[in-house]
Amino acid sequence: MSAKTVAALASLALAVGASSCLRFYDIVIETPIQAKLDVSSFQRVLILGFLAGGSKDVDPNTETVRLLRSQIRTKSDLRVIDSDVLSLVDEVDRRRRAAGEEPLTDPATVDPDEPKIKNESDLQEYEAIFADVDYWKTIGEEYQAPLIITGSILFTDLQRSGMVASSTETLDQYGRRSVTPTRSFQNQKGYALVPKFIFIDGRTGVQLYSESFREETLYSVTNNTPPLSSYFELVDRLLPGFLSTLSTQKIKGTRTLLR
Length: 259
Description:
31% of the residues lie in helices and 36% in strands. It has helices at residues 3-21, 60-75, 88-98, 120-124, 133-142, 227-246; strands at 24-33, 44-47, 51-54, 79-80, 147-171, 177-201, 207-212, 215-220, 249-258.
C-alpha cells in the first residue's frame, strides 16, 4: 500500500470519527421589526369606522373595526376605546345634507340591499373626509385626544379565467410516487380585499401615516367557500403589516447549529 493511500485512509477515518461526535441543534431566533410609526405619545386608540363597500355579502366596516380592536388589545400597549362603529359613508352623506348639498348617493335611487360604494371609483368621491382636519380634531376632542385609526376597505368579488398551474400525483406498480406539473384552463371565482389604513393625531386632526394593502384569493367555480371565511383569510395575511405600524413585532425563525 502506497504512502498516499495510507494518508487518504487516515484522513477519512479522522473525518468519520469527527462527524460521529458532531451534533445538530435547532434554535429559535426572534428578529425584531421596528414600528413604522412612533405612537409613544398616545395611550389610547380609537378605531371609529371606515369608508367601506364592495360585496353585499360582508359588512367590511363592522368586521374590520371589531377585528382590529381585538388585535390591538392583545398585541399592543395602547388601550382601545369602545365606541359604536361609525359608517363613514353615511357620515359623508349626512354632512353634505347638513351643508345644503346633495348626498353623493341618492337614497331614492340606491338599492338598500346594495352597498353605496361598489368599486374604487365610487370610493374616490368620499375620500375627501380624510383631509378634513377640523372634523378629525372634533372627533379627537370628543374622545380625549387618542390616536385615531380609520381609512377605507373594499371587499369585492373576483371572476377570472385562464391557464392555472397544478400538479398530478401518480403511483407506479411498485408504489413509487411521482408528481407531474400540469397546466389547464379554468374558470375561477374569489375575492379581493383592498384596505387603506390611515392614522390620525386626535389632538390636531392631522394625518400621521397611511398604508395600503391588497390581498386576493381565488377558488374553482365549484368551490362554495363562504364570503366571510374568505374575508378573514385575507385579513389574516395583512394583519402583521398593519400591526407593525403600531408596535415592534418579532418574526420567529430557526437556525441550525453544529457542535
